[in-house]
Amino acid sequence: MRHVALIGWMVCLSLCLSVLSVLVADEPRLEPGFVRLFDGSTLDGWEGDKSLWKVENGAIVGDSPGIPKNQFLATTASYGDFELRLEFRLKEGRGNTGVQFRSQRDPKSTEMSGYQADIGEKYWGCLYDEHRRNKILAQAPATLAAALRPDGWNSYTIRADGPRVILSMNGVKTVDYVEPDDAIARAGIIALQVHSGPPLRVEFRNIRLKPLKPLKPLKP
């Protein structure tokens, strides 16, 4: 009986180690200088409509049944010059979403004002100015199509350094933009979007950020 119990214990241990190895494989090693903005299990450090946002299988999920206005899940902290890295997946590659940065909430609506690293049909990898100038500031190249996985996991790198913004998706540089307007804010919050309109589901995971220089306090 002891022999049987030992075998059972060893099988259980083997299964536990297998599960642990899968979890570790899904959680990449943190690169030097980077900090996690998402702990993989809670929405600590983020604020927004929790009826639309949840954590599922190690990812932040925006699950919209169809909404009349854009909604955002935003960091409670502000960031200036940084490199942000994350992975996203848009269900069936349908809909429109994005990652806000150097942004702020509009106190009179659910909108956010600021730069958006765009995600979705016709806008993959573009730089959009959300609720401010309301236009695409830089288009992504046609070469992105070959590297894009519309309904699978994709990587996004957002680098904001002074007036320069560089976006890369799946290793393809999509935007290299220099802001000509010195009045445009160079610090603000980061946020994830669920766009108004039909139902959509988007997931974000492995969200980490490397500050490029200390953030100066914003003037009142």
Question: What can you tell me about this protein's structure?
Answer:
This protein is mainly beta and 220 residues long. The chain has 2 domains: 1-30; 33-211, Exo-inulinase, domain 1 (Jelly Rolls, Sandwich), CATH 2.60.120. The protein is built from 2 helices and 15 strands. The strands form 2 sheets. Strands 1, 3, 4, 6, 11, 12, 13 and 15 form an 8-stranded antiparallel β-sheet that branches. A 7-stranded antiparallel β-sheet has the order 2-5-14-7-8-9-10, with no helix packed on it. Strand 7 (96-105) and strand 8 form a beta hairpin. The longest helix is centred in the first third of the chain and has 25 residues, at 2-26. The chain is globular.
Judging from the principal axes of the Cα atoms, what is the shape?
globular
CATH superfamily of the largest domain: Exo-inulinase, domain 1
Largest sheet: 8 strands, antiparallel
The beta-strand count equals: 15
Share in helix: 10-25%
Determine the CATH topology of the largest domain.
Jelly Rolls
Strand content: over 45%
Spatial gap, N to C terminus? 74 Å
Low-confidence stretches: 15-25
Rg computed from alpha carbons, rounded to a whole number of angstroms: 20 Å
The average pLDDT is 89
N to C succession of SSEs:
HEEEEEEEEEEHEEEEE
CATH class of the largest domain: Mainly Beta
Instruction: Supply the number of helical segments.
Output: 2
Helix/strand/pairing category: mainly beta
Proper CATH architecture of the largest domain:
Sandwich
Task: Count up the domains.
Answer: 2
